[in-house]
Protein 1
Amino acid sequence: MSADVIPLPLKEPPKQASLGPILSLTATAMNAVNAVILDRMQSEIPLIPALAGHLISGGGKRMRPMLTLAGAELVGYQGSRHHKLAAAVEFIHTATLLHDDVVDGSDLRRGKAAANIIFGNPATVLVGDFLFSRAFELMVEDGSLKVLKILSNASAVIAEGEVDQLTAQRQIETSEERYLGIIGSKTAALFAAASRISAVVAECGEAEEKALDDYGRNLGIAFQLVDDALDYDADASEMGKDRGDDFREGKMTLPVILAYARGNDEERTFWRAAIQGHRSSDEDLAHAVELIRSHDAVEATRERARHFAQRAIDALAIFPASKAREAMVEAAQFAVSRGY
Amino acid sequence: MSADVIPLPLKEPPKQASLGPILSLTATAMNAVNAVILDRMQSEIPLIPALAGHLISGGGKRMRPMLTLAGAELVGYQGSRHHKLAAAVEFIHTATLLHDDVVDGSDLRRGKAAANIIFGNPATVLVGDFLFSRAFELMVEDGSLKVLKILSNASAVIAEGEVDQLTAQRQIETSEERYLGIIGSKTAALFAAASRISAVVAECGEAEEKALDDYGRNLGIAFQLVDDALDYDADASEMGKDRGDDFREGKMTLPVILAYARGNDEERTFWRAAIQGHRSSDEDLAHAVELIRSHDAVEATRERARHFAQRAIDALAIFPASKAREAMVEAAQFAVSRGY
């Protein structure tokens, strides 16, 4: 019954890449962004900075604002408009994380108790709304309708992706195509927008905008694929979220899609029951991880991620070689080497 | 222990006002707004229009977009930009209603099952986010940074008001001043913004903008005061939400604040227990309604509402007499005559 599987070339993991270069490249500007973030998450209502600060100071990688800052370096932008806009991007992201925690009923986020566990769902929803509004206030202050268009559209697409993911939840028949559509919306749209707006503030032109959009979008897909792989990778090093969350929530991610597609009848029966929520014990999770391993579904997911990371890297070819470009290339390599 | 109460003049209720004139005034334009709303709540993700449509076609009064349309009539605006912007206002409002239903755990909204009951909290949160993003997309299409500033600021203030209300929940010592601050943010800010933007698109000038802002803001406060009075008014005619919701949720609204302030020690003991959630049976609600009645707290709340409605009406004095102005005056009178 199961489809024939083309044996995967057992590629070497890419060289041990790091975020070091992109972190150095953007460190000074990121201090300015952090100052904006701290300043603009304030409110006369004390619960707002308390709740927002719990997540914002909770050690996220600031990947999305970092893309805005790195892009600005890449195109040689000399101004400071991108600081506010990068803060707006991080606020949008933080708002979606807060709402995700409510949607998923998460216990952990970035290795500590999720905001909804400490502050409750109501406050978490509302502070998300506040940060989302603040993001738009920051963009309005900047005054670029083009940036506003890019980020308001990205926000709508993120919400669509999240709803689509909800609809696909516990649906074992979800296809790889649909999954790619979902992560393209819920994750990659903001990566693309964050990256693109650096070219907008620098007034580079359409080709540069498009190239940075492509870079961010493909990088975002690669990041999400690896995140989803790590949730089933028995060997992977530590993660911020609870291992096995996706499994217990019946989320259809690529490792499951591939293991199901490649599985025999008995295995498919297990997956159907598990994704519907009837097999969610620790033993069931261990069995799921074993099935995924036996079909090389984590490695296949990583292979897909490498494909998108390579597209991200190649999108940068229109820019002349520079320290910024090197750092952005290595960030894409890092995205797919995590957990080895 | 209780403060002396200045006896209230038992005013006649205002003449039986109606929304008829403002509905007629804005009927044609509202059709255009509804077309925008229907068009822009669509998505390739079927759950989005299904959930949004449940609330949007659920018979709301469209008060906020109506203010934008009426204001445009008042100032003689001839264009059609206000159609999209009024739709954006309604989307922002709808997003906050969806999130409110999750925050309050509502069962009913506008007399039928709340979206969260039918579609669940996760989808309700996310579709709220979608509509909120769509609102900004509509504003960006219009292209006025001034309108974007007004509505992004209003959105942040609404969220602050909602969080503040959450913080005040079950806090019997909440003062009238704080309560007025909360409803000024959570309700009146969007009334004010919706009204103000009509003067912005018509390029009227600061005085007209300010007058329409004042009209909307005071009207919004009056509306909310009457809503809160009706939740404890034994004689009032039908309402969309469950009678007694505020009581059971421990929400500090003006009827409770006044009854507590005017109550004796024994009554205050009851209120403390009730607002903390220890007295929430039907008998307790009946007792609360009786205490509120005995201290004329519903009528006093209505009297406050009449004060703000009058300020709304007087704010229109800078505009020449017109059919539009008459209709807006009567809308303010209607706001405070509901439920008699």
Note: The mean pLDDT of chain A is 93.
Protein 2
Amino acid sequence: MSDKKNIPYKIYLEESELPKQWYNVRADMKNKPAPLLNPATGKPVTLEELSGIFCEELAKQELDDTNAYIDIPEEIHTFYKMYRPAPLVRAYYLEKYLDTPAKIYYKFEGNNTSGSHKLNSAIAQAYYAKEQGLKGVTTETGAGQWGTALSMACSFFDLDCQVYMVKVSYEQKPFRREVMRTYGANVTPSPSDTTEVGRKILAEFPGTNGSLGCAISEAVEAAVSQEGYRYVLGSVLSQVLLHQSVIGLEAKAALEKYNEKADIIIGCAGGGSNLGGLISPFMGEKLRGEADYRIIAVEPSSCPSLTRGTYAYDFCDTGAICPLAKMYTLGSSFMPAPNHAGGLRYHGMSSVLSQLYDDRLMEATSVTQTEVFEAAEKFARVEGILPAPESSHAIKVAMDEALKCKETGEEKTILFGLTGTGYFDMYAYEKFHDGKMENYTLSDEEIAASIAKLPKVPGLE
Amino acid sequence: MSDKKNIPYKIYLEESELPKQWYNVRADMKNKPAPLLNPATGKPVTLEELSGIFCEELAKQELDDTNAYIDIPEEIHTFYKMYRPAPLVRAYYLEKYLDTPAKIYYKFEGNNTSGSHKLNSAIAQAYYAKEQGLKGVTTETGAGQWGTALSMACSFFDLDCQVYMVKVSYEQKPFRREVMRTYGANVTPSPSDTTEVGRKILAEFPGTNGSLGCAISEAVEAAVSQEGYRYVLGSVLSQVLLHQSVIGLEAKAALEKYNEKADIIIGCAGGGSNLGGLISPFMGEKLRGEADYRIIAVEPSSCPSLTRGTYAYDFCDTGAICPLAKMYTLGSSFMPAPNHAGGLRYHGMSSVLSQLYDDRLMEATSVTQTEVFEAAEKFARVEGILPAPESSHAIKVAMDEALKCKETGEEKTILFGLTGTGYFDMYAYEKFHDGKMENYTLSDEEIAASIAKLPKVPGLE
């Protein structure tokens, strides 16, 4: 239970050690992520086009693949101090339980009211919207973590916040909705009749439970059709990975403080915001040839965009009104089975991570829902933290890797991202306890059918 | 937003600064709390009698009013490191929002999965049960924070954990129940037909929603009727205040680190565990004449044991099977109105705090439910943390005191206890948002009727 180096259970950096700049991993990538395309022309979107959807500063960040470091504005830095630096935890009890020679660390991002890492980007996006003099922002939320984070951020900067919440989550998670209301947000179940695209989807699929892709379409329409509003997104985008780099920068600094070096870095991957943020500075070293790391993305077997998708241009949303992104995708028409890790039920993957994966700079693996909850419950019992289903995907693979070390006797250092807490996911835990949780693994035919519907891109056909 | 002394937003002590001893405030009290009495004889309970209900070591702590410091066993100290030291937060944003010259600090105990300070005593009680070679423990829970904390602690020491959960909470808070199941606890809605006292209460009050007093009676019966089991309680008892002194010891050490001294210390008070723990070391200085502090207990106007109760011997439980304690009480037959701060719905108050209050060493005030939720929502929006309804009683009064400073221009330092988070209380927030929350203030007649039923104590009549 003790360590030669006397490493504490929780490594807290000082507030003065909070990163002052985000790190933009794209700057160090030889093969840059493919540009976003205007679906009408097949040409890369311009700053002007993008600024109609996003705040201008965020549009700039989205297109910036050359500047490695971008200053964190003072207001955001000060807000970060309310809940950051986040602890890097040495999982002594998990190591003991697994009886492994591996050293396990996790970067815990759940100690803020949004319950996850999403707040890191939400506060940045709200800040730039305020700076631009906007009235408000629109967004979608699935599991509710992003919507909660954005509500908190908008409340802080006194911005109107309109959240389109996937209908099934809106109904199954009334308490998530209530947290957003506490922070003053307007929450609408999606699809709704408040947008044209929502009405169209409702007409085509009456009684649908909604999906993240639908909710994105509605939120984008709401943004572009209201004066003084822009759309913000909690994952997938390169700007989001940029903001989330604060996770990796802190984790790296905390490890270095104790002369530790990670061998394996593991994160769950839905749209890629957490994994992208966690690995950024480590990947930077790898890209520059300064160090090597095994990096593993973990996705649910019911929504395996990296492990079983295809690398192609696709829409980010179901309504097909967003720019096209080149990414590993199951097809924007893909409707994932009801896996309880709502944050991982997305058809595509960050363009940055997709390119890194395609370049064999990281690995990916998929796991089933029940094995994830088994790992989650074990983790809760030995480490005390009740993990979110999303985060538990990383826990499962971290435990597997630590057990491999037990077999080989290797004393590897494993770092994984514990993105958030599961307080609003107890319905899923209940199903698990009652033995009513099902696994969904897609057939090759299902995936092929969905991928066959990928959009034709003008000029790329 | 900055401070001359450069005080960070969150003051984290090092793990090496975690207190190694609990502080027993009774040792410094001139007027000791009145002893627990055996209701059959009217005589002070003996260690032997008490050891039939509680673990022996805990029974000793319960009776110990002379030793000022008690070592924290190594296993407990190590467990504490998983979530302690807890941060002392400087409420810069709240100060700014209130535009007050006052300096506001809060000791935040919500950053662990039980969501509150309750874990501090739960782990101690589970440890001593394990040390004694017991099979398991029984307890009651109202809002569910104590039950969750005890489930975590028992899971850690591999003890059986039987929780009697007030029926209305069991039904309204299925997710709390599910967290306890995640940690392996058995949860029974109370009153139940698994105990004699439960069956009796059900026969007398069919369709009752249950109460904390009933659940205590059931848990005690379950403990004494099973081989190898003892009963544990999350508040009221002097042993619990002892364990909770870790809150105050850390808060005091953190303030001293920055040469700060509290003028006013505020905490919510149900059974008294949080307030008692927070104030212990400060009260110790006050009792020894080394310093002075204004100390304020905050209770709900619907359950005002200190402000409107009477100081007398009473049962701790509704079933009248526990020892008698001298305390400020509304009568053990009192059934509080459905205030959403379940942790404050208790008819009595810790004997230690009752004596200190009777000796005018601390003040008490009561607040209504709606003003508490108004303060809670404001706090959430500016400080980012979603507070539990219980904790929000302290927030309300801290804000009031800070506003008084604004009027007088005094630069007082206010410290309050933020005992936990409100993630499982969103039903209450929903009622508040929908304008459906009611206030309950008791009439003098109601209180008099309840107090008239206080037990007759042999030899004290």
Note: Chain B touches chain A at residues 1, 8-10, 12, 14-15, 78, 81-83, 93, 111-113, 115, 152, 155-156, 174-175, 178-179, 181-184, 377, 380-386, 421, 423-424, 426-427, 429-430, 433 (CB under 8 Å).
